[in-house]
Design brief:
This protein is of the alpha+beta class and 118 residues long. The chain is built from three helices and five strands, in the order E-E-H-H-E-H-E-E. The chain has helices at 39-44, 53-65, 72-86, and strands spanning 3-15, 26-35, 68-69, 91-99, 107-115.
């Protein structure tokens, strides 16, 4: 299975369950792997045949920056829904990390897989 990936995409948004978290923007980090057959774009050398990771990144940045969820689980699901529905991806693995959320840890978060592996 070929994969297109986006690694350590940093986006700030309002996220969290505590009152103080609802008043600030916090950084999140996204790692995304998306199943995509890369043979056609490799043969054509045409951006129109690819899964355009810049377009995916820009769409997620716009969505996440304007979001205001309490749970990282909810945000991860909504982001997965966007990629699956809008970019013709049949499977993805999304890791959403919230740095500094727990003292002593680099980050906490969730990893989800959605869709059917080819």
């Amino acid at each position: 299975m070929d994969k297109v990936f986006i690694e350590a995409l940093e986006i700030e948004c309002v996220i969290g369950i505590y009152e103080w978290e609802r008043k600030i923007k916090q950084p999140l980090s996204f790692d995304i792997e998306m199943a995509f057959d890369n043979r056609k774009p490799a043969a054509s050398d045409d951006i129109g045949d690819t899964l355009n990771y810049k377009a995916v990144s820009k769409r997620l940045i716009a969505f996440v920056e304007s979001s205001s969820f309490q749970l990282v689980e909810t945000l991860a699901e909504r982001c997965a829904d966007i990629v699956l529905a809008e970019f013709g991806v049949g499977w993805l693995r999304l890791k959403l990390a919230k740095p500094g959320a727990v003292r002593g840890s680099k980050a906490v978060g969730v990893v989800i897989e959605r869709g059917q592996r080819p």
